[in-house]
Design a protein that fits this description.
By secondary structure, this protein is mostly helical. The protein has one domain. The chain is built from four helices and no strands.
Length: 112
């Protein structure tokens, strides 16, 4: 195997989409917390928020994103379809969280 093909990112579209929805999750969480009416419901993320404010929570969440990306890239080298399935599932889960967060934000402003 040549060195260039060894480090090729597989499932680039799915990986990019997962990273994008994860960034939206962080943005929505930040907006909700800034309202003063909401708090982080994930106890691990809340620990990082309580100790290091938004920087800690962003660091924690992006570490989790990096973990999923690296894990799916490792899986993809042997089982491409399995890695694609894991990424698509992650995209769906995080997307549901983002949509729910958006609904909470809109409701808190009386727009829904």
């Amino acid at each position: 195997m040549s060195r260039s093909s060894r480090w090729t990112v597989r499932l680039l579209y799915e990986t990019s989409l997962f990273v994008a929805v994860s960034v939206f999750d962080i943005l929505m969480t930040h907006r909700l917390i800034r309202t003063g009416r909401f708090h982080e419901s994930n106890p691990v993320a809340k620990f990082f928020y309580d100790h290091w404010d938004m920087r800690g929570m962003v660091g924690f969440k992006m570490t989790m994103v990096a973990f999923v990306v690296v894990l799916t890239q490792l899986i993809a080298h042997r089982h491409l379809q399995r890695a694609a399935w894991v990424l698509r599932l992650a995209i769906c889960v995080v997307s549901v969280v983002v949509i729910y967060s958006l609904l909470l934000l809109l409701r808190s402003r009386g727009l829904v």
